[in-house]
Amino acid sequence: MKIATFILLVCLINSSYGIYTFSFNITIPPLSSWIPSLSSIPYLNSISSISGSSDSSAPAEPSERSESAIPPLSFVISNPDLTSVTIDLRSIQMRAEAFYKKISQTILEDATLSVPELVAKHGYPCETHTVVTPDGYILTMHRIPRGKTSHFKKRPVVFLQHGVLASSADWLISEPEKALGYILADAGYDVWLANNKYSKNHTSLSPDDGKFWNFSWHDIALYDTTTMIDYALSYARQEKLFYIGHSQGTTVSYVMCSEIPEYNRKIKAMFSLAPVAYMTDINSPILQFIARGQGQLGSVLKAIGAHEFLPHNRVLGIVGNVLCRDESITQILCTNSLFAVAGYSDKQMNTTLLPIIMRHTPAGSATKQFLHYAQGINSGEFRKWDYGSSGNVEHYGNDTPPKYQLEKVTTPVYLFYSKSDWLSGEKDVARLYMELKNVKGAFLIADDTFNHLDYLFGIQAPELVY
Ligand SMILES: *[C@@H]1O[C@H](CO)[C@@H](O)[C@H](O)[C@H]1NC(C)=O
Ligand SMILES: *[C@@H]1O[C@H](CO)[C@@H](O)[C@H](O)[C@H]1NC(C)=O
Ligand SMILES: *[C@@H]1O[C@H](CO)[C@@H](O)[C@H](O)[C@H]1NC(C)=O
Ligand SMILES: *[C@@H]1O[C@H](CO)[C@@H](O)[C@H](O)[C@H]1NC(C)=O
């Protein structure tokens, strides 16, 4: 009972509604005015603006999370054809409850475990290592030094770097036969799982401090990833490792190898799952939304106390709910920012795993990471943080930010992409393919419905990808 309640709370508090029933008016302009490729997604008569106000006249139960503590949300870009949608969070909550009642006890138990506990439960060894980055963040890495069954003497290091809103847990959520972390351990690798700044620890800053969240994936590449790679190599006494990145984990690999080319020598081969560098072919409504309202959203997020992306951000929860208003399960999914940003595929989604996924996501990310991607959507380029003209002159000596020099990525790269990935579009992957210097293979996943997160939890990920 306690567990179910906990998960439900995570699920709801994720979108920080408290337990009130709110109704929001959401204005929906014609799709075509927004982005043509979106019309290919059914039921997505999507959103370019939210004008929200909470209907606080109907508090369902007393709660510590008083509505007045949340600053009013006022965020309107444009209001053409007004269509009003009311979301009844009470009914979502009831459907969520019904859903969790059907989930087995084992899964609910797994959903309470930390990464080392989860790994140990499956019978694998798990170590926790701490590193400190040059910019002062204290990061926790997880290591599965060997598999359950393997007796390999020489175990090559493989380094797994996760995406935004994600963490080391993502490689370990399915059962051992299906989750990449375990599969690699059993195949004889020394598996190191990265965690970025989301470890939420710093030598001098507190996560409550806005400055803590002043980083983008550029910083994750230059500081976090380099530090973790060096640590893993030195600990395992090896010269080189295999790098597997998912989503933002691929972005940081390109930034790192182009900005600090000596890392090319430390990487034997790089496997990019759902590569993200250019962002012109993006179907994620929320990223589009952020890109369109970049300045405004930045200030809204700041106003509601967020340099960290989401923990108290109603915007995405609401957007997600509208996107997914047909099925109960999809509604639950879409209250989670990870799914709201990345989408999911019905065919590949194992809903049984939801409680475990919800336990570990969203892992903290900085608003700046999303805004940096949004800049890429708007500029069509893969380049450094845009400070605005005068800021750019000050930082870079030029009024536009410099592009990342992909031709400096000389380590062998393997790209894995799919047709219906919301965040890693075919066109963008093709451009990346052309610009990287040493692509050894580009693999289109043989399932047209395969989406961004299926690389991690997809029912057929082992057959189709690994
Ligand atoms: C939603 O829109 C309707 C019609 O425009 C209006 O009567 C109602 O007060 C609005 N509700 C909220 C919560 O803004
Ligand atoms: C879904 O996940 C559960 C728990 O790991 C597993 O037992 C089940 O076989 C999975 N279902 C499919 C279709 O892969
Ligand atoms: C932060 O890291 C320090 C040093 O490793 C550790 O002593 C402390 O417990 C950590 N704090 C949290 C909140 O994890
Ligand atoms: C964030 O960091 C950048 C340098 O990366 C600096 O120019 C900027 O002033 C910082 N902003 C805040 C709010 O600390």
Automatic annotation (TrEMBL):
SUPFAM superfamilies: alpha/beta-Hydrolases. Residues 1-18 form the signal peptide. Residues 115-174 form the Partial AB-hydrolase lipase domain. The keyword Membrane does not apply. It holds the Pfam family Abhydro_lipase. GO terms for biological process: lipid catabolic process. InterPro entries: AB_hydrolase_fold, AB_hydrolase_lipase. The keyword Lipid metabolism applies. One of its GO terms (molecular function) is hydrolase activity. Keywords: Glycoprotein, Hydrolase, Lipid degradation, Lipid metabolism, Signal. Belongs to the AB hydrolase superfamily. Lipase family. PANTHER family: LYSOSOMAL ACID LIPASE-RELATED. This is Partial AB-hydrolase lipase domain-containing protein. It comes from Ignelater luminosus.
